[in-house]
C-alpha cells in the first residue's frame, strides 16, 4: 500500500475551506489586537468562536 508522507505523519493537508476560515480567524485576531472597545472585542471573539466551530465541523475526526 502506497502511503504518502501525510498518512505516515498523520497530518492531513489543509482543505480550502479550512484555509479560508483560518484566514478569517487571523484577520479577526489582528483587529482585536488593535481595538480597545469591549463591545467590539466581544463581537470579534464571537466571530472567532463561530469560525473555529465551523472549522471543527468540517473535519470532526481531527478535533476529537
Q: Using the alpha-carbon principal axes, give the shape.
A: elongated
Number of separate structural domains:
1
The tally of beta strands, per DSSP, is 0
Q: How many strands, what sense, and barrel or not for the largest sheet?
A: none
**Which spans of ≥5 residues are poorly predicted at pLDDT below 50?**
5-9
Instruction: Provide the β-strand percentage band.
Output: under 5%
Q: How much helicity do the residues have? A: 55-70%
What is the residue-averaged pLDDT?
82
Beginning-to-end CA distance, first to last residue? 27 Å
Q: If you had to describe this structure to a student in words, what would you say it looks like?
A:
This protein has 64 residues and is mostly helical. The chain has one domain. Helices cover 69% and strands 0% of the residues. The chain has three helices and no strands. The chain has helices spanning 5-9, 16-33, 38-58. α2 (16-33) runs antiparallel to α3 (38-58). The chain starts with a helix and ends in a 6-residue tail after the last helix.
